[in-house]
Design brief:
- The protein is of the alpha+beta class.
- The chain has a single domain, classed as 60s Ribosomal Protein L30, Chain: A.
- It has four helices and four strands; from the N terminus they run H-E-H-E-H-E-H-E.
- The chain has a four-stranded mixed β-sheet with strand order 1-4-2-3, sandwiched between helices.
- The chain is globular and about 30 Å long.
- The mean pLDDT is 87.
């Protein structure tokens, strides 16, 4: 089941990437949610287990989740940001420049 969900997510991200309907990064996501929440259909929150102790990141996630819930935006937690980076930034090499803790699909 999880594999099917992963495949479906991969397909959604691939389409969104080709249609340029992705917003990457906590700050960029917050800006978009502030001005145009109605066009956001999915919010991905990605963090590794080691980042669970990052208070600032957890506060961002809490606020993003609350905002998404208020605006009926689906939220998905991703526990493997490295895999997300592989899908979204194939040409960026091993150190992706973008913040991938939050990804919005519009």
């Amino acid at each position: 089941r999880m594999e099917q969900a992963g495949d479906a997510l991969q397909e959604v991200l691939s389409k969104a990437l080709s249609q340029r309907s992705l917003t990457l990064g906590v700050y960029e996501a917050a800006k978009l949610l502030n001005v145009d929440p109605d066009n956001v259909v999915l919010c991905l929150l990605a963090a590794e287990e080691e980042e669970a102790g990052d208070a600032a990141l957890q506060i961002h996630f809490t606020l993003l989740r609350a905002f998404c819930c208020e605006n009926d935006i689906n939220i998905l937690r991703v526990s493997n940001p490295a895999r997300l980076a592989e899908l979204l930034l194939p040409a960026a090499g091993p150190d992706p420049p973008a913040d991938l803790h939050c990804v919005l699909v519009t």
